[in-house]
Predict the 3D structure of the following.
Amino acid sequence: MPYSRPDLRCFTRSVNASLIMSMTLALVVSCSEGGSDSDPASVSELTPPAALAISVKEPSNPGVFDDRVVFGQSAAFSGPAQALGHAMQLGIEAAFREKNQAGGVHGRQLELVTLDDRYEPGFAYANTRDLITKEKVFGLIGGVGTPTSRSAVSLVETHSVPFLAPFTGAGFLRESNLGSVVNLRASYAQETEYMVARLTEDLGVSRVAVMYQNDSYGQSGLTGVRDALERRGLEPVETWYYERNSTAVKAAVFHIGAANPEAVIMIGAYQPVAKAISLLRIDIDPIFMAVSFVGSNALARELGPEATGVFITQVVPVPDDAEKPIVAEYLSALNSFDTSSVPGFVSLEGYMAGRLAIVGLESCKDLTRKCFLNTYQSSQSIDLSGVELQYGTGDNQGSDEVIITVINELGKFVPVTNLAETP
């Protein structure tokens, strides 16, 4: 739902804009990436000019009001990965509106404040700080990406702010010592293990190459593939990278093409992955596989007719399978919220994230961040209309489910259990 205090929001945005401008030089140095993410602790805390400073008394229960509770989302709403941020927001908003129309949670309406981080760690850090200290949201939900989540996690842990359902399978977010992070989806290690299992067991593939994004997301996926191959006495025939927020994939295409692999696993976002597939198909004809973060629907749109035969691992159900209760409810909520919207895997994950937040809110009539987080830290099973999530002490990941889909000639996503029997 839109934020209800436009004057304060406008003023806050002015402060945010000033801070972002003043941080530009620092971000060029501290947030650029060679082979790894910058340490979020190295992004300096900058003080706004005195004329713009805001003096606001710290609320005892941030983001919680008599009539509403406010969440924040920092995600990519511009740039090459923007489809992912918009889709996550769409799903969350659909879930929140569905609940609001039913009366909200304990009399409170659910609201979402969003800020654009352009899929860059420096902006994600600044946005997370502002959402916590200026917007004073109750919790964060639906962040998009591994490098952006890495830069945010130190802040949410320091302030004990719920960090719910980030759109990433990165291993560092699943560490048992984290007290504020609640994951919905399976990890990249699980996705890549399933990919390699199906390639080797179903098809006897042994020559696997990897194209990856040159940051912590790409490295996480690359490590998963290497480990899965090593367990089978194999190693990649080639690995090559491209830079985040770019489509400069020609070097990767050259090196991977020269290795003539039987399969190429792509750890990237939809635009560079689509370009690489198109270029590689000029000279070789391998099996292409991408992890869920690619943005399945956006990838299919980018590739058009060339999408046929591309495999993608998924961590949520197929979004047009209305026989599944969670999907039927998602489709109804989506249509009610925005009749022009097209169902997709990412917005379904956003919807499930919103539903997961509602479970925590409903469990706390006297709502506090501590009570909310305790919902997911106690050993219990949570049923999201047929999707079972299991949490417990030291286990902050709800689902371990991974499936593989293939894009058919009609552009539809078809689940596959055996690659040798692909329709």
